[in-house]
Amino acid sequence: MAGKLETGRLIEILQEAKNIAILTGAGISAESGIPTFRGEEGLWKKYRPEELATLTAFSQDPKLVWEWYDWRRGIIGQKDPNPGHKVIARWEETFPTLSLITQNIDGLHQKAGSKNIWELHGNIWKLRCTEEGTIMENYDIPLKEIPPICSECGALLRPHVVWYGESLSPTILQESIQLSSECDVMFVVGTSAVVQPAASLPFEASEAGAKIVEINPDPTPLSLYTDFSIRGKSGEILPLIDRELKKTFKA
Ligand code: BJW
User: Fold this and answer.
1) Is the CB of 38 inside a 6 Å radius of any atom of ligand 1?
2) Where are the alpha helices (DSSP H) in 61-169?
3) Domain ranges of the chain
4) Distance from the CA of 194 to the center of ligand 1, in angstroms?
5) Whether residue 72 has its Cβ less than 6 Å from ligand 1
6) Per residue in 132-158, pLDDT tens?
7) How many helices (H) does the chain have, and how many strands (E)?
8) Which residues are catalytic?
9) How many angstroms is it from 159 CA to the middle of ligand 1?
10) Which residues 6+ apart lie within 8 Å of 192 measured at CB?
């Protein structure tokens, strides 16, 4: 399927593009072995989000919520970036400006070498003090204590992620909206495009005149509104586009 992809028009557009934005979701890490949220193998099939990924759940049973995050850190910690992450990291040198907006909390884009990253939903390797708001990196697998406690003030630490019903960082969100409205091309990779406000970023881009390129094995609510809807795995499609680009660019 990926080998037959018609990339001609897309490559022409990319050659002219100055600002590229990429919005990624859990699907880009699927080929690294990290479960997505929705779909047949999704995390939400086994765990109801309202039981685990909400402030209410955390307030009621921080130990249970932390055990889930500790389990996920154990999985993610063993995984490496796949060819999709690596192409995106390389494209920071290919294009004059490339901004990566991710919903993922797994840190695999950074591990692949991406630098210009806006993490909409936080990062699983960061903990935040529930009293003082201090954010600290922590790579322990497993965590030394569950639930972890702030060494400064003794309050509970929580994962530095955005749960349902919580606001995203206003700065990160505002900058992401700005980047979306300024880009010439936006790639939307591996997201079901249902969780707001991330799902509205491609519409910001499109309304400002950007071309939208979706890469996903399955259709999403966004598919109808894209300029290119490429069905396939991002770990295959992105390297294929990259190969075509290299034939024309001095990449
Ligand atoms: C591949 C592939 C391969 C597979 N290659 N692709 C009613 C209407 C509108 C909005 C709301 C509403 N009720 C509530 C809301 C707001 C809510 C929301 O949007 N809910 C919707 C579900 C309806 N949003 C919020 O609460 C946000 N806050 C907010 O809006 O504040 C203001 C407000 C509050 C309350 C009410 C109203 C306004 C916060 C959202 C935070 C999301 N948090 C999570 C958990 C993070 C922490 C953690 O991981 O534990 O973020 S939820 C989860 O979903 C996670 C993800 O980042 C996010 C998006 O998921 P994603 O990345 O799209 O993954 P999947 O699994 O859904 O899709 C994977 C895709 O990959 C699929 O399409 C596959 O086909 C594809 N794929 N293999 C390429 N190889």
Assistant:
1) yes
2) 62-77, 83-94, 108-112
3) 1-34+82-121+168-251, 36-78+125-161
4) 6
5) no
6) 999 999 999 999 999 999 999 999 999
7) 10, 9
8) 121
9) 17
10) 25, 27, 36, 37, 38, 39, 220
Q: Is the pLDDT of residue 2 over 70?
A: no
Does the structural domain 36-78+125-161 have CATH classification 3.30.1600.10?
yes
Indicate the fold that domain 1-34+82-121+168-251 takes in CATH. Rossmann fold (3.40.50)
Ligand 1 near 140 CB (within 6 A)? no
Distance in angstroms (rounded) separating the CA atoms of residues 161 and 32:
21
pLDDT of 154-200, one tens digit each?
999 999 999 999 999 999 999 999 999 999 999 999 999 999 999 99
SS3 state at 81 = coil
Output the CA 88–ligand 1 centroid distance in Å. Answer: 21
DSSP secondary structure, 212-246, as one string: EEEE-SS--TTGGG-SEEE-S-HHHHHHHHHHHHH
What pTM was estimated for this model as a whole? 0.95
